[in-house]
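hiii so um. not sure if this is the right channel but i have a protein structure encoded as tokens and i wanna go backwards to a sequence. like what aa goes where. can anyone help
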């Protein structure tokens, strides 16, 4: 009887151990399984545009871009060129916006001459992200009168009634100025291409 009791106790402990191990394996698999992306964080690409950076607002991470909305053309009656039409647009930056510069930041040698980078130095300046064009930059590198190439993205939108926004993760009415501002496309990446000569250092 003692042997039977011992055998029963051993089997009971073994089953508990296996059950605990199975639960741990299940928990481990659950941890290893990648979490599903939050639908609120999905963004839809809108497009790219080359513009002139007019103003940088650090308080709310926004910028004002001067975008060409109409090409220049020759007016035969006036016998002159009509300049291109530019329009200023305010846009917010995404929280995870990528800021790059097309060329490495200018540096000078001991004699004050522009430094020429080696292939190795250029590779080091690109950082870990070798696939993305350009070189790393940050918000402080955004200077007024710079020529920039921006990529725009927007939150997904669904049909709604009653004047609601329809944007996933954005509650409120679309006629609210703050909500309307939030509904605009946001900048997901900025590539600094250069500066206008006369205002290169103007902020």
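sure thing!! here u go:
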């Amino acid at each position: 009887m003692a042997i039977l009791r011992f055998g029963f106790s051993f089997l009971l402990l073994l089953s508990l151990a296996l059950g605990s191990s199975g639960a741990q394996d299940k928990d481990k698999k659950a941890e290893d399984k990648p979490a599903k992306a939050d639908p609120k964080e999905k963004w839809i690409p809108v497009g790219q545009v080359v513009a002139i950076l007019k103003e940088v607002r650090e308080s709310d991470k926004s910028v004002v871009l001067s975008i060409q909305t109409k090409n220049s053309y020759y007016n035969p009656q006036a016998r002159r060129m009509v300049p291109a039409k530019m329009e200023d647009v305010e846009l917010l930056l995404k929280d995870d916006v990528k800021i790059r510069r097309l060329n490495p930041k200018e540096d000078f040698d001991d004699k004050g001459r522009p430094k020429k980078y080696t292939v190795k130095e250029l590779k080091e300046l690109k950082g870990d992200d070798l696939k993305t064009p350009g070189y790393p930059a940050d918000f402080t590198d955004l200077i007024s009168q710079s020529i920039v190439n921006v990529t725009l993205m927007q939150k997904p939108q669904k049909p709604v009634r009653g004047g609601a926004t329809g944007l996933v993760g954005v509650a409120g009415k679309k006629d609210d100025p703050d909500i309307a501002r939030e509904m605009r496309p946001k900048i997901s990446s900025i590539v600094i291409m250069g500066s206008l000569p006369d205002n290169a250092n103007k902020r």
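oh and The chain has one domain: 39-197.
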